């Protein structure tokens, strides 16, 4: 029941906010890409990171890192994937699905701090590219561009997050996640 309520809240958020943020109209994904993305992310993961995409302090200072955990679970019918994350600063829930009309892999997440992320994912060779529009609880929005790389026979995910600061300079943060269980 808890999963159903979380899924309904995420779907309601997606319907209310739309996806006009996706400026990468020329990129597409297939259902097979979606299945591969889900298979790569299933299981329990942990990382010692400065911040995560569900926080407004993304691209934080490495000396302030904390341990975070997340779990990816594929739905019984294989048409959706849910994510649950927890760390010392917040928790979050996400729903990932394939949008057949737009030919996009989409993720919408909501954190315990009220941060909403709307993301699109597509392949670029062996890597995955993630475009994120983040809206904080005060209405402030930011965009991120991330490159997601799998290594160590699928047991490590490296995410390099790029964001422009107020001066227009691009800052980046690298998060490394290790699979601790499937």
Structure description:
There is one protein chain. This protein is mainly β. It has helices at residues 2-17, 31-41, and strands at 43-49, 66-74, 80-86, 91-99, 104-111, 116-124, 127-135, 141-151, 156-164, 170-181. Strands 1-2-3-4-5-6-7-8-9-10 form a 10-stranded antiparallel β-barrel. The protein is globular, with a radius of gyration of 15 Å. It starts with a helix and ends with a strand.
Helix segment tally: 2
> What would you call the quaternary organization?
single chain
Radius of gyration: 15 Å
In whole angstroms, the N-to-C terminal distance is 23 Å
Which segments are poorly predicted (pLDDT under 50) over 5 or more consecutive residues? 1-23
Write the layout of secondary structure elements.
Blueprint: H1 2-17, H2 31-41, E1 43-49, E2 66-74, E3 80-86, E4 91-99, E5 104-111, E6 116-124, E7 127-135, E8 141-151, E9 156-164, E10 170-181
Antiparallel strand pairs: 1-2, 1-10, 2-3, 3-4, 4-5, 5-6, 6-7, 7-8, 8-9, 9-10
